Amino acid sequence: MSEETAHTFRRALRGSGRLVRMGALAAATLVRTSRPRSEEGGIELLAEASRRALSIHGLDIRVTGRPPQGPALLVSNHLSYLDPIVLVTQSNCVPISKSDLASWPVFGAVARRTGVLFVERSSPDSRLAVMHAAEDVLRRGGVVLNFPEGTTTDGSTVLPFRKGLFGAAQTLNVPVVPVALRYRPRELAWIGDDAFVPHYLFFLGLPESAVEVVFGEPIPARAFGDAQALAEAARDRIVGLLEDRTEWLRKAR
Q1: Cβ-count burial 95-122 (b if 16+ within 10 Å, e if not)
Q2: Residues 65-74: pLDDT tens digits?
């Protein structure tokens, strides 16, 4: 057997083992989510299942900074379908996700039953409904997770932020907490037009992978004149966190 063939065999064996374990986790989580529970209980269950899922996949989470614990709008750069799964393990936040993910097998059902907010970005009615739902979470002292770029990127840039929920943060006077994400290997970034199954099979077969999660200092929402200015400040802060981390890694070599 050639080294290349052996490598391919090991990847396939590793991936199939993880897939079996994920199937068992998914089945158990679906059963648990079928029982009535509070919104807080649903997010706690989602966080627990996410931690177990990332452990099964061998994804190492390396955290710098302090996750928000009280009412806050958590905003992040957006690289992958893994982003909300990673961040909910750190803050028990309520993620906002695009609506087509609600129809994904298993994941969609679990997400719907555990309090994830799904938005159809092309629908004003959907955006308004999610805005009101997110405001309710913030009023009750929860953390809402939003990806203001509105789509995923390969990590080479951070797209302009949509003002969206930044206005709600100002109205309710809750802090905005920026968080920067970076994956190793970089190929874990998943662009929206990419096919999901080949990318997920690649992830399943990786011998090791990691994500850096860098939480920045809270930004006082009312320190800015309007939602657009606050959105731009949050984006600048995330760009700074990514640049600072890059410089740190360069010096550490």
Answers
A1: bbbbbebbeeeebbbbbebbbbbbbeee
A2: 999 988 999 9
